[in-house]
């Protein structure tokens, strides 16, 4: 893993100056991060606080936020791999950084985990967007026919619409071509977060008191309570998933100033803002509904009026998740297509670009590999979403799978390698304890969430 990859970095950077310029700044990075962080996870936070109670609920949100920000700082410093002979080479993705710092075996293990994670995130976004589409129909139905009406709709049609939109958007060559989509999606995330927060406040004011308890919702058995707590922790972990795309975002930033300085600033702003939103949405949602807090704040019991505001909020969710799907898909697309291209460098099906011009839209380039592979991927995630359309359970499982390996283990191991931290020093012991504690919490969340998903499928 020595000179060859570093030389490749140098050649890539020289080529970049003639082909494309990185123009991102702290605010485009903030838009990307917020698009990636404030996703479907925010909608379950009131339910999470309800399971954990007024003390443990907010503490868990802040705890995961602090860990995510610490991990982000470690990853920001891994973007440039130091080398005394060739200078710092760029790691354009998380997987490249792992390969350069930890070697081929770790890179292969990482590759499997991150591809599963990215795929799982897009499945979760597919499910959530479908739930929001259905919620718009239900709120209109309840408004027109009354709350006692039977307003049930099939999800399959909505899944197919979302999949069709993603097939079109997935033809964008890379993440640099969807900065506009991330900005729109970030605005939408603020909009529906404010609406969820505002509706919670309105419910508290209308009822005149704050619901909930210090220990959360009671259950008939201790085992059931533990399962719900573990699922809540998994849901909160899922609400902070952007470590998997951090370096792809960092690779869009112009330099100077150095990319790690800009990315640390953007990460601090984004995590601070989103955590405040999370605390407000989760807290006021629980305060409004208490033990009746729904799994999805904007599509559960109680928020039927004003129906037009519910429709608007769910429309914002859908638009945001359209952008979020692309933000998590593009790194997966880039990695898979890069590997295929490296293996078959002279294949016309892989390399050739065809220009198309349709009425009313600018001309665009179409690649057959991109068209076939990305279409197949969107179809796959759509089918999985149709098969497992369970909101809280799915995001709990994905939080359990993603959080520890990608947010804790690999950043810490790369830090040890790059800083030459010796075993059994104070810093080494503290980070090892940190890693073990987070592993135990994550496994607890994962086991409970898997059990919940199995139970939901069997019902």
UniProtKB/TrEMBL annotation:
<feature type="transmembrane region" description="Helical">
    <location>
        <begin position="156"/>
        <end position="172"/>
    </location>
</feature>
<feature type="transmembrane region" description="Helical">
    <location>
        <begin position="307"/>
        <end position="328"/>
    </location>
</feature>
<feature type="transmembrane region" description="Helical">
    <location>
        <begin position="178"/>
        <end position="202"/>
    </location>
</feature>
<keyword id="KW-0472">Membrane</keyword>
<dbReference type="GO" id="GO:0016020">
    <property type="term" value="C:membrane"/>
</dbReference>
<keyword id="KW-1133">Transmembrane helix</keyword>
<dbReference type="GO" id="GO:0006865">
    <property type="term" value="P:amino acid transport"/>
</dbReference>
<feature type="transmembrane region" description="Helical">
    <location>
        <begin position="26"/>
        <end position="47"/>
    </location>
</feature>
<keyword id="KW-0813">Transport</keyword>
<dbReference type="Pfam" id="PF01490">
    <property type="entry name" value="Aa_trans"/>
</dbReference>
<protein>
    <recommendedName>
        <fullName>Amino acid transporter transmembrane domain-containing protein</fullName>
    </recommendedName>
</protein>
<feature type="transmembrane region" description="Helical">
    <location>
        <begin position="109"/>
        <end position="128"/>
    </location>
</feature>
<feature type="transmembrane region" description="Helical">
    <location>
        <begin position="428"/>
        <end position="450"/>
    </location>
</feature>
<dbReference type="InterPro" id="IPR013057">
    <property type="entry name" value="AA_transpt_TM"/>
</dbReference>
<feature type="transmembrane region" description="Helical">
    <location>
        <begin position="371"/>
        <end position="391"/>
    </location>
</feature>
<feature type="domain" description="Amino acid transporter transmembrane">
    <location>
        <begin position="23"/>
        <end position="454"/>
    </location>
</feature>
<feature type="transmembrane region" description="Helical">
    <location>
        <begin position="397"/>
        <end position="416"/>
    </location>
</feature>
<keyword id="KW-0029">Amino-acid transport</keyword>
<keyword id="KW-0812">Transmembrane</keyword>
<feature type="transmembrane region" description="Helical">
    <location>
        <begin position="54"/>
        <end position="75"/>
    </location>
</feature>
<feature type="transmembrane region" description="Helical">
    <location>
        <begin position="268"/>
        <end position="287"/>
    </location>
</feature>
């Amino acid at each position: 893993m020595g000179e060859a990859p570093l030389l490749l970095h140098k050649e890539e950077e020289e080529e970049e100056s003639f082909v494309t310029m990185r123009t991102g700044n702290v605010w485009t990075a903030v838009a990307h991060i917020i698009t990636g962080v404030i996703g479907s996870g925010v909608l379950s936070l009131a339910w999470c606080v309800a399971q954990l109670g007024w003390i443990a609920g907010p503490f868990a949100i802040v705890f995961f936020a602090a860990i995510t920000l610490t991990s982000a700082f470690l990853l920001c410093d891994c973007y440039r791999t130091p080398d005394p002979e060739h200078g710092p080479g760029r790691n354009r993705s998380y997987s490249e950084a792992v390969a350069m710092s930890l070697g081929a075996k770790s890179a292969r293990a990482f590759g499997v985990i991150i591809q599963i994670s990215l795929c799982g995130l897009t499945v979760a976004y597919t499910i959530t967007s479908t739930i929001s589409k259905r919620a718009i129909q239900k709120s209109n139905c309840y408004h027109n026919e009354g709350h006692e009406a039977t307003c049930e709709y099939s999800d399959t049609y909505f899944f197919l619409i979302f999949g069709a939109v993603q097939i079109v958007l997935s033809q964008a060559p890379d993440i640099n071509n969807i900065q506009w989509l991330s900005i729109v999606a970030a605005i939408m995330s603020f909009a529906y977060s404010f609406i969820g927060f505002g509706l919670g406040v309105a419910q508290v004011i209308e009822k005149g008191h704050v619901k909930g308890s210090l220990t959360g919702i009671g259950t008939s058995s201790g085992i059931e309570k533990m399962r719900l707590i573990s699922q809540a922790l998994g849901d909160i972990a899922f609400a902070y998933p952007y470590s998997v795309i951090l370096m792809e975002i960092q690779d869009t930033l112009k330099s100077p100033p150095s990319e790690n300085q800009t990315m640390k600033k953007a990460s601090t702003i984004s995590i601070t803002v989103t955590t405040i939103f999370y605390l407000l949405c989760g807290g006021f949602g629980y305060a409004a509904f208490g033990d009746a807090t729904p799994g999805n704040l904007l599509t559960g019991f109680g928020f039927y009026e004003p129906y037009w505001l519910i429709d608007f909020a769910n429309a914002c969710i859908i638009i945001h998740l359209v952008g979020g799907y692309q933000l998590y898909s593009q790194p997966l697309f880039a990695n898979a297509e890069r590997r295929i291209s490296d293996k078959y460098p002279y294949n016309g099906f892989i390399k050739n670009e065809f220009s198309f011009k349709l009425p009313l839209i600018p001309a665009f380039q179409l690649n057959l590999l991109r068209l076939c592979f990305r279409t197949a991927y969107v179809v796959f995630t759509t089918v999985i979403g149709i098969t497992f359309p369970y909101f809280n359970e799915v995001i709990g499982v994905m939080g359990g799978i993603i959080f520890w390996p990608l947010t804790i283990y690999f950043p810490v191991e790369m830090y040890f390698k790059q800083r030459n931290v010796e075993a059994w020093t104070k810093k080494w012991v503290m980070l090892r304890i940190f890693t073990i504690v987070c592993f135990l919490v994550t496994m607890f969340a994962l086991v409970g969430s898997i059990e919940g998903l199995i139970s939901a499928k069997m019902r």
